Amino acid sequence: MRQLPMAFYRRPVLQVAPELLGCIIVRTFRGRTVSGRIVEVEAYREDDPASHSYRGATARNEVMFGPGGSLYVYFTYGMHFCANVVTGVEGHGEAALIRGVEPLTGLDLMASRRYGRKRLRSPADVLSLCRGPARFCEAFHLSRPDNGIPLDSPEIFIAPLSTRPSGGVARSGRIGIRHATEKRWRFFERGSPWVSGPRHLTHFS
DNA sequence: CGACCGATTGACT
DNA sequence: GTCAATCGGTCGG
What we know:
Elements: H1 6-9, H2 13-20, E1 24-29, E2 32-44, H3 62-65, E3 71-76, E4 80-86, E5 95-105, H4 107-115, H5 123-127, H6 133-139, E6 156-159, E7 169-172, E8 186-189
This protein binds a DNA duplex through strand 3, strand 4 and helix 6.
């Protein structure tokens, strides 16, 4: 499967983030593969009070300051992981948070990671497999060891968009932040059931 | 050090 | 709608 070239990521995050919509993210762990279509992302930038990179590089966020094309995975709320596509050139602390993915292959494996032995019980369970940044990480088995992994590795890569977002690309304010709430840096496929957040923000823009 | 709190989720009124 | 869970990053003293 064709992969996005590293040059794709090494551009400004506000350019890269919307272009990630419709792309396929493929994850292989211990020989088992899951994949899905990216439908929702948020941009974070160094001059942005809501961004982890706002106060400069630290041990935690240093991956954000590296060259675009790797994964920034962080631990939050004492129990969840979130994954970002690092963008821009070396020295710019920016990344796109993956917030929503439409599952394509490996749904059984995703379900066992998300729900354990219970697996899939209802249509609502399928909808929640990787809707939301922490749910996506759980379904794709992304956590601490995956911080900094290059996005052209066999373990994880992103392929160019399969189908263009059918409802078009919409944008809104970002979810769950306290600062810079006026910035409309959340990009999503309008109308997609795999997009997270309150419903009035899934058709907005 | 100690205190605060988060780019979230799931359970529950 | 409300709220607790749970812990490491960050900052002030």
